[in-house]
Amino acid sequence: MSELDFLTDTMSRLLTGLPITLQLAALSVSGGLVLAVLMAVARAASRPAEWLVRGYVFVLRGTPLLLQIFMIYYGLGQFAAVRDSVLWPLLRQPWWCALLALTLNTAAYGSEIVRGGLNSVPAGAVEAALVAGMSRFTLYRRIVLPIALRQALPAYGNELVIMVKSTSLASIVTLMEITGIAYAIISETYRALEVFLCAGAIYLILNFLLTRAIAALERHLNPHLRRAAA
Amino acid sequence: MSEDIAVAVTGLHKRFGALEVLKGVTLAARTGEAIAIIGASGSGKSTLLRCIPLLEVPEEGEVAIAGETVRMRLRRGVRQPAEPAQVNRLRAQLGFVFQSFNLWHHMTVLQNVIEAPIHVQHRPRADVVAEAESILEKVGMADKRDAYPAHLSGGQQQRAAIARALAMRPRALLFDEPTSALDPELVGEVLLVIRDLAEEGRTMLIVTHEMAFAAEVSTHAVFLHDGRIEEQGPPTQIFRDPTTDRCRQFVQRHLNR
Ligand SMILES: Nc1ncnc2c1ncn2[C@@H]1O[C@H](COP(=O)(O)OP(=O)(O)O)[C@@H](O)[C@H]1O
Ligand SMILES: [Mg+2]
To answer: What is the span of the domain harbouring residue A112?
Structure first.
């Protein structure tokens, strides 16, 4: 087999892991964003919630994601309550464990990013909404979150890029996403350098496309920050 | 309380920590009245105006909008409105114009104007847009309806903010120093708009340092000093012939600027 054949063969095998990588990234990031917004809003609204969220962020941000994946995949099964629960059929599968760990992890970082966005909302914008008679819910839905999330988008974009790369840790619990497949190919061929280069190239392209998409979204959401008048 | 009273405050006391900013203020605006509120910086004008839509909650005293008194309660020793829904409903009957405009910067001028009529008052979008366009016409902002606030001058932003307040079909308009944040050459265009509103017979409370303007548009004037109404009366009295020394000195100092 020629060098070129080996590379194209490797690439096409690695790409069969792409759906799992994309699923893990997309689902964890969407679920994480919902949790992040809920936590950031709850934290701003009540004292007990603030302490709960702070504790959550402290633990999830202060420990390695790899350990979190291990804890969920290997650790949860030790509890009879978990084994007997309706969720056990899911929690015994590596895919769901990896997704859960990634989601909980990005939610912690995300809640801090969204909190920064919330803090940047001008008090005057909130007062203008209040005097117009907006309820708390409408205020958040129409004014506060749209401003906060626009503000948070650049930092959130970073988090998305990190999450795409973090999906590679799922290989450690036997998931055959891109990195997992790379391991498998290397254990057959012992050609670590070429295979990892190919895998790296895929992540690089994914993140290139992702950052371009985020930049386009930023431009789309912020016509008011553009120089020329609309 | 009569339906004819658009806005009334009775015996307002407001403290910020140890500082007592309002020391028993009673004031009512009948429908069609334009009340000018003047007084030195720090005398409590903004606080008084902000108590009306409950942006500040007074420790004592009552606020009534369109004859309906805001119900209050004590929660852990802090006085607050008893029913947020009542406050929201009453707030939607007022238009508040801030010194610093406070437009929503992620929305165009038109989006700012139609936001609350659609999402608070739940009026049909097409009607709201049509009405918003005629209001923007009136304040001279029709050509800027699709512009974002960041691309507008201060005077244009304030006229957009006035349009936003008018779109609520308010029972009363509250202005808190609407021209104080503007470059001098932009003050006139905003005062012109407010003067038109006064001529229409709109109910207004206007906090301002523009004495000549206040004398011209108001039907009643109030001089606030140190958290109390020191003097009030028809504009001819307050701006030309005040009875108290403090008011006289204050008006003279500001008229000669
Ligand atoms: N949120 C606040 N916290 C603490 N002090 C305040 C607050 N708002 C106003 N004050 C104080 O209350 C006094 C009256 O303020 P204000 O009503 O803004 O006066 P004016 O509008 O007449 O200049 C000032 O001394 C001001 O510093
Ligand atoms: Mg003031």
So the answer is: 3-222
Distance from A192 to chain B by nearest Cα, in Å?
50
Please state the domain count of chain A: 1
- Among B1-5, B65-69, B173-177, B221-225, which stretch is predicted with the lowest mean pLDDT? B1-5
Question: What secondary structure does DSSP assign to B59-106, as a single string?
Answer: SEEEEEETTEEPPEEEETTEEEES-HHHHHHHHTTEEEE-TT----TT
Considering the domain boundaries, does residue A228 fall inside one?
Answer: no
CA of B218, closest CA in chain A: separation in Å?
A: 23
For residue B146, give the nearest of A134, A225, A230 by CB distance: A230
b (16+ CB within 10 A) / e for A100-135: bbbbbbbbbbbbbbbbebbeebeebbbbbbbbbbbb
Looking from the CA of residue B176, the nearest atom of ligand 1 is 21
**ipTM value for the complex:** 0.94
Take atom 21 of ligand 1 and give the residue whose Cα is closest.
B46
CATH no. for residue A13?
1.10.3720.10
pTM, 2 dp: 0.90
For residue B53, the CA-to-ligand 2 centroid distance in Å is 15
